[in-house]
Design goal:
The protein has 385 residues and is α/β, with parallel strands linked by helices. Helix content is 42%, strand content 9%. It has 13 helices and nine strands. The protein has a five-stranded parallel sheet with strand order 3-4-5-9-8, with helices on both faces. The protein has a two-stranded parallel ribbon with strand order 1-2.
Length: 385
C-alpha cells in the first residue's frame, strides 16, 4: 500500500515583508508560503524579506559542498550494503537544506544534530570518516563535540531540541553573542521533547534556531498524518516566528538561516525554520520506501534536485566551466576512496573498554564482572591453541 504525501503540493513564494514579521495565515485552498531565491530551473529570483549576494567563488563552494557530501553519503550507503556498516541514514535530496544552513553558522555557534546531518557536519569541519565509527560499532561518536561546536549524533528522536534549548539558555546567561541551532525532522516535530523545547525557548527568549527538515516522510508516515497545519505555523502557538523555505534551494536556505541566527544573537529569541525538501532514498538502509510511496512522487522531486538546480545557475551565469566540474569529480573519487579505505581499516574497540568510566572510584561488582568477562574471553583463546 502506498500513501500520497504532501510532497506533490507546490508551495508558493512568500510575500512576507521581514523576517519573523506578521503574515496572513494560509487560508482554505491556499498553498503554504515558501521562501525561494533559485527556481528548480536554475533561475535567480528575488524575495522581499530575504536576500543574499554571493561571489562566483562562494557559489562554486556551495556546489562543491553539496557534491562531495552526496558522494560521501552514497559511499556510506554502499559500504552498509557490503556489510561494513550496521546501518546508515542517507541525506540524499537534502543537501541544500544542510549545506545552506551549515554555512550560515559562525564558528562560535553551537550545532545539535540528529543522525542525518552529514552535510552540516561537513560544514563544521568534522571529517566525514569520523561519522562512520558509530555506524560501524567501533565508537560512540568519533569526534570531540567541543572541537567544532558540533554535538554528537542523537538517535533518540527529538531530544536534541531540549539539549539545544538548555545550551542556548546558558549562552544567554553567559552574555555571549553566539547562537544555537537544533536540527530535527518532520517526524520529530510530533515528539513531546520538541514541544517542551519550544516552550522553554520562548519563555526564556533563548538564542536558538529550530531547523526542521521536512522531507515529507517520518519513515512511512506522510506529513499530513502528523499535522493539520504547515509545520512552520506551529511556532505561532509558542510565541515566536516560523518560516517555510524551499529546502532544495541552497541560496534561500542560507539567507533564511543567516537571518534567523542573527536574530537570535541580537536577543530577539527563537525562530522555527521549516526546510521543505524531500527524502529521495530510504529512511535508513533498513527501510524500503517502495512499500509506502509512489515512484511518481519521487520523479517530481528529482526535477527539483538541489545540486542540478545550482549547476544550471552556475552554467547559465558563466560562473563555472567544464574544468571546474571535472576537477570536482576527481576530488569526489578521491574522497570516496579515502572513506572506503578508512572504514575497512578502523580498529575494533578494546574489549575491556565497556568496564571503564562507569564509576569514578571503581566498584566491586564491576570488578567482578570484568574478571568474569576476561575468563570467558580466555576460553576462546585456549580453544584456538
Amino acid at each position: 500500500m502506498t500513501v500520497d504525501s504532501t510532497a506533490a503540493r507546490k508551495p508558493r513564494r512568500s510575500s512576507s515583508k521581514r523576517a519573523g514579521g506578521k503574515k496572513p495565515a494560509d487560508g482554505p485552498g491556499q498553498e503554504p508560503e515558501l521562501v525561494q531565491l533559485l527556481t528548480p530551473e536554475g533561475v535567480r529570483v528575488e524575495h522581499p524579506a530575504y536576500s543574499i549576494d554571493l561571489s562566483p567563488a562562494e557559489l562554486r563552494g556551495l556546489y562543491r559542498d553539496m557534491v562531495l557530501t552526496r558522494r560521501f553519503d552514497a559511499e556510506a550507503t554502499t559500504l552498509q550494503r557490503q556489510g561494513e556498516l550496521g546501518l546508515w541514514a542517507s541525506l540524499l535530496g537534502q543537501e541544500a537544506a544542510q549545506i545552506g544552513s551549515g554555512r550560515a553558522t559562525r564558528d562560535d555557534d553551537y550545532v545539535f544534530p540528529t543522525y542525518r546531518e552529514h552535510g552540516v557536519a561537513w560544514c563544521r569541519g568534522v571529517d566525514p570518516t569520523n561519522l562512520l565509527g558509530m555506524f560501524r560499532g567501533v565508537n560512540n561518536g568519533g569526534w570531540d563535540p567541543n572541537e567544532n561546536n558540533f554535538h554528537l549524533y542523537t538517535i533518540v528522536i527529538g531530544s536534541q531540541a531540549l539539549h539545544a534549548t538548555g545550551y542556548a539558555m546558558g549562552v544567554a546567561k553567559d552574555g555571549a553573542d553566539s547562537a544555537v541551532i537544533a536540527y530535527f525532522g518532520d517526524g520529530a516535530s510530533s515528539q513531546g521533547d520538541v514541544a517542551e523545547a519550544f516552550t522553554f525557548a520562548a519563555v526564556y527568549n533563548a538564542p536558538v534556531v529550530f531547523f526542521c527538515q521536512n522531507n515529507q516522510w517520518a519513515i512511512s508516515e506522510p506529513t499530513e498524518k502528523q499535522t493539520r497545519v504547515p509545520l512552520y505555523q506551529r511556532a505561532q502557538g509558542y510565541g515566536f516566528p516560523g518560516v517555510r523555505v524551499d529546502g532544495n534551494d541552497v541560496l534561500a536556505v542560507l539567507a533564511v538561516t543567516k537571518a534567523a541566527l542573527e536574530r537570535a544573537r541580537t536577543g530577539e529569541g527563537p525562530m522555527l525554520i521549516e526546510a521543505f525538501t524531500y527524502r529521495m532514498g530510504a529512511h535508513t538502509t533498513s527501510d524500503d520506501p517502495t512499500r509506502y510511496r509512489r515512484d511518481a512522487e519521487r520523479e517530481q522531486w528529482e526535477a527539483k534536485d538541489p545540486i542540478l538546480r545550482l549547476r544550471r545557475y552556475l552554467e547559465s551565469e558563466g560562473h563555472a566551466d567544464e574544468a571546474f566540474f571535472a576537477e570536482l569529480e576527481t576530488e569526489s573519487d578521491a574522497l570516496a576512496k579515502r572513506v572506503r579505505d578508512t572504514v575497512r581499516t578502523m580498529p575494533d574497540p578494546d574489549d575491556m573498554a565497556i568496564f571503564e568510566n562507569i564509576y569514578a572510584d571503581g566498584h566491586a561488582l564491576v570488578d567482578e564482572e570484568r574478571a568474569q568477562f576476561v575468563a570467558y574471553q580466555a576460553q576462546f583463546a585456549e580453544e584456538s591453541n
